[in-house]
Amino acid sequence: MSNAPKPAAAATTEGTLANIVSHAKEYGFVFQSSEIYDGLAAVYDYGPNGVELKNNLKQLWWKAMTQLHQNVVGLDAAIFMHPLTWKASGHVDGFSDPMIDNLDSKKRYRADVLLEDKAAEHEKNGEIARAETLLAEMGRLLTAEDLAGVKQLIIDEQILCPVSKTGNWTEVRQFNLMFSTQVGAVAEDSSQIYLRPETAQGIFVNFLNVQKSARQKVPFGIAQIGKAFRNEIVARQFIFRMREFEQMELQFFVRPGTEGEWYEHWKTMRRRWHEVMGLPADKLRFHDHEKLAHYAKAAVDIEYEFPFGFKEIEGIHSRGDFDLTQHQALSKKKQQYFDADIDPETGKAYGNYVPFVVETSAGADRLFLATLCQAYQEETITEGEGEQQQTKTRTLLRLHPAVAPIKAAIFPLVKKDGMPEKATEIFNSLRHDFRVIMEERDAIGKRYTRQDLIGTPFCIVVDGQTLEDDTVTVRHRDSREQTRMPISELRGYIGEAVSFSRIFEQL
Ligand SMILES: Nc1ncnc2c1ncn2[C@@H]1O[C@H](COP(=O)(O)OP(=O)(O)OP(=O)(O)O)[C@@H](O)[C@H]1O
After folding, report:
1. CA 168 to chain centre
2. Which domains are present in the chain?
3. What is the mean pLDDT of the chain?
4. What are phi and psi of 211, to 5 degrees?
5. Can you tell me which residues bind substrate (predicted)?
6. Average pLDDT in the 47-64 region?
7. 243 in a labelled binding site
8. What percentage of the chain reaches a pLDDT higher than 70?
9. Long-range contact pairs involving 180-183 (C-beta distance under 8 Å, separation at least 24)
10. Which of 198, 301, 339, 431 could form a disulfide with 312 if both were Cys (CB 3.0 to 4.6 A apart)?
11. pLDDT (tens digit, 9 = 90+) per residue, 214-245?
């Protein structure tokens, strides 16, 4: 291998949310749903590069769960479930957000989000204690379901509608977030069912099916990736808050009394997973919940610092035996596990019990957005020498090669002298293992730019020398350095860079 001269170092800046949204659209990552009809609020489609990136992220999660742990198995439950599921889980009666309307702008807001934003403002101004008091008070009022108190807090904090700039608010009301529809062809026979608002319940109702068929012993986990639907009151911040989104959930079943250790274990593991995936430690933090959900004994969010501040990407919850006990009561089917291990205190088997659950619940779309925000960079670079020297800005996505939509682009330097044929040969030799593309159009610099914009880690150039000695140059996206290497080494070289094991060995 030989190296060409090293390019000069570059100064980099991160993108704003507006930069990232327009980049995502222009380069085929994310489109507004039904855009030709002016779009549908809070619903998005993933384009050709977006679907590859998202699939790679989901695969990394799936393998980190099911492949790395003998005691975690997968499931793909249906979106529709028996309506009693949602009665048992508490969603019919309690899955709601407190909303408030501004009478002048007619805009609707989540009361808790208005208060959280205000707390973030206090924090930004250095008034940490004031922010903490506000969040604690909000948590107390929401737990007590004191909606009048929540409104009073909004008034006391002098929170104004961002649109009308007035404090002319309605009362705070609860708004159920579940979407419902009908099953059954004839209206009279039909019954109301819901689009699942979380994937977790599909796991709980299958707890015994999975445990028995996969011959698992507690502690063990069930992992699932799937769509969830919530009629979010306020849709904003791009794919951060969607009405149709995807969750990646692990429900981990443990012996009662051991949930505290497992909660800490999964807290640590999941944060580390985000770090090895490329989210820097100083842009991640834990945030304990001010208000616990009805099912939770302990709950923490992993937050990432998006361009719009620290926000949740994953929740870790100690759910106790709430879900299985509820399903047992409504279905009248025992949800017990027989634990044959010996309890050292009694000298007898632990026997029958309803396991406790520790949940890790990550949003695939929020992870996608965090990855995109982290990867997006604008660099000022200097190219050429002497009078030819020029400074320009290049935009690139510094995606980990394992998640990049395209692993390598193959370019014949010119469209003649047998170079396109040689490039095609290389393309054919790599395409079974990696997603690679071939590009012949435009000057080589333009072709590099196009690949930088979508995060392709390697560009392989076939030139005159290739035809003589079967070597190519490999241009590296991040450093812009070029390496000459034999064609026979490409497969191993790319394979090493994109392999998941390089990420997993750090876990
Ligand atoms: N509307 C949504 N759009 C995209 N992802 C979501 C949405 N709601 C939840 N998620 C993802 O699912 C994960 C687990 O869901 P959970 O019910 O814990 O979220 P949540 O606490 O209700 O989120 P938030 O407080 O932001 O509404 C979240 O960490 C997030 O990544």
Report:
1. 36
2. 25-76+197-373 (3.30.930.10), 96-176 (3.30.40.230), 384-504 (3.40.50.800)
3. 93
4. -60, -45
5. 110, 198, 245-249, 359-363
6. 97
7. yes
8. 96
9. 183/80
10. 301
11. 999 999 999 999 999 999 887 778 999 999 99
